Amino acid sequence: MSIWQLVLAIHLLSAVVWVGGMFFAIAVLRPALGVLDAPQRLVLHVPVLRRFLLVVWHAMPLLLITGFLMVFGVFGGFAGLPWAVNLMMLAGLVMTALFLVLFFGPWKAMRTAPNPESLERVRRLITINLWLGMITVVLGALGHLI
After folding, report:
1. Which three-class secondary structure state does DSSP give residue 98?
2. What's the rounded Cα separation, in Å, for the pair 125 and 98?
3. Angle between helix 3-23 and 116-142 (nearest 10)
4. Cβ count near 89 (within 10 Å)
5. Domains of the chain by start residue, with CATH
6. Residue partners of 88: CB distance under 8 A and separation at least 6
7. What is the pLDDT of residues 33-85, one digit of tens each?
């Protein structure tokens, strides 16, 4: 195994954790919590989101670092990137910015005083990031064919 295979593996695992976690939160957890009353859903979301966002705080930097390592170590810099990889990098940076907005905005408000409005803003930002993440995965998988 070469160092670049290891870097790619870390990159892919970080993406799976982040995007998979968002998919789970939106497509599985949120609908399942419909059996609970609204106050109970809100109380449960706080520890769930706390754990998920902590995981993303680890996966996101690994994803960015390994992405930049591959840009320069495999492709020789941005000038040598295929267009799909450029789009993946842009999407990753936008996703990171949205995560930071979520973390320091609605999530901070929800941590200090949980309320339905903060939870809805968190949900919206996670949904946007999920779509960006899914598009990025498709670009990674099929970019060389498009």
Report:
1. helix
2. 7
3. 140
4. 19
5. 3-142 (1.20.120)
6. 67, 136, 139, 140, 143
7. 999 999 999 999 999 999 999 999 999 999 999 999 999 998 899 888 888 89
